[in-house]
Amino acid sequence: MKKLALVVSAICLSVSAVAASDEPVAARKALMDANAASAGLAGAMMKGDLAYNPAIAKAALLTLNASAKTFGSFFPEGSQEGDTTASPKIWEDAAGFQAALDKYMADTSAAVAAAGRDGPADLDAFKAAVGPVLGNCRSCHENFRVQQN
């Protein structure tokens, strides 16, 4: 369990470190890696593959929320080129992308608030908090990410 807590802490720190990056594509990838790790922890707890732990659940929610608050800064015009799976739709439909980011920020903030100081009280509370957040991830990937075969 201590190893898992250290992994989550490292994820949280990586989100903070990425915020200082000058390279938007690299920053987006690092934020996505942090999100994927947090979503993986959430999924493992929800499936029962990992014992539910409120502190780990809270750390995953905090990581998702931290990335939600900074993610939009790493899609400047011109950053759609290069090694990225960001869809051109991000820049073609900037208002739609911003609306998706706003929903993600609102849902991650609500999940953190619902988690309370010590994390969600039980697995059902965690599922209720993280469910809408993970739905945002899925929706954004479907609408604003180039699908790879």
UniProtKB/TrEMBL annotation:
Q: Does the keyword Heme apply?
A: yes
Query: Which annotated residues bind heme c?
Result: 137, 140-141
Alphabetized InterPro entries for the sequence: Cyt_c/b562, Cyt_c_II, Cyt_c_prime
- One GO cellular component, as annotated: periplasmic space
Write out the GO biological process terms. electron transport chain
Q: Which UniProt keywords apply?
A: Electron transport, Heme, Iron, Metal-binding, Signal, Transport
Query: Which modifications occur after translation, per UniProt?
Result: Binds 1 heme group per subunit.
Residue spans crossing the bilayer: none
GO terms (molecular function) for this protein are: electron transfer activity; heme binding; iron ion binding
Protein name per the record? Cytochrome c signal peptide protein
Q: Which organism is it from?
A: Nitratireductor pacificus pht-3B
